[in-house]
Amino acid sequence: MAKPDRVGHLLRRAARWEAGLVGLLILVVLLGERASPQFLSSYDLFSLALTSGEVAIMALPMTLIIISGEIDLSVASTMGMASALLGYLFSKGWPMLAIFAVIAIVGAAAGLFNGLLVTRLGLPSLAVTIGTLTLYRGIATIILGPNTVANFPATYTNIGVNPVLHTGLPFSALCFFGLAVIFGVILNGTPMGRSIYAMGNSADAARFAGIRVKRIKTLLFVASGVICSFAGVLLTFRLNTAVQNNGLGLELQVVAIVLLGGISIFGGKGTIVGVVLAVFAFAGIQYALQLTSFNQEAFGVVVGALLLSSVFVPNARAIAARALAAVRRVSRRRSVTQRSA
Description:
The chain contains 14 helices and two strands.
């Protein structure tokens, strides 16, 4: 486990990063207000929460997985597979409750498959989930093919697009906030949370400390599969359409949000609070760009820039220290060469 001074250092670092995110949020609000006076209207805020809810939900299990030292790039494909399965079973006349149960089981199986390949076979999670990203998307294509299923019952599609009573927020946003509280409690108030941080800092040390690394990581992947399947159901009801490419490409947005939230790509660092702030900032940036003449097809440029900056900025000090050390080594070698001459 991390020593007390180490924990204090991590908390101070997280607080600084979260303060920077608050500053970014303020900047986004100012830019959004400049782009449109209606940027902070209740309608625009509802639309903002509605369109970003599913991605925000998928970012939560990704947060725990990255803190543990792994990554799951199959999240959007799991979402698409759940959407295709929902459409297929509905078209065959299945009752909704039975469909939800099947989707939850399939999502858990998808996460379990990822987890077993990583923990039992010792394969790198990056390679495994790149493979299952393609695999699960292929399964979605097989399930639904080129077909489109629509006209789901209004009872469910209304949940996807209408605010929940007395809240003014969409159902997906409320689910995100509820899950964020649960995940925050797990990370900061339970032995499992401390174990997740310990695994991210050093899996070997965690193993020697008696932490069941393989079991916990497998559970994290299973949770990711179930939650991403749930997000796929919400996306399908919001769009009132099930197609095999629902959620295509969203995995990069999920990773960008998590890293922007201060979660270290190397594991062992970060907080749920930072990820929640990053969700607000990312959604605000995306919506502000929509209000301008920015080419939405080039939004990938923004996502890529956020990914790179989120990795570079936290490690800038270490990168600068290594560069300075390299310069000093070169200078010493030159001095020795000159004295020898």
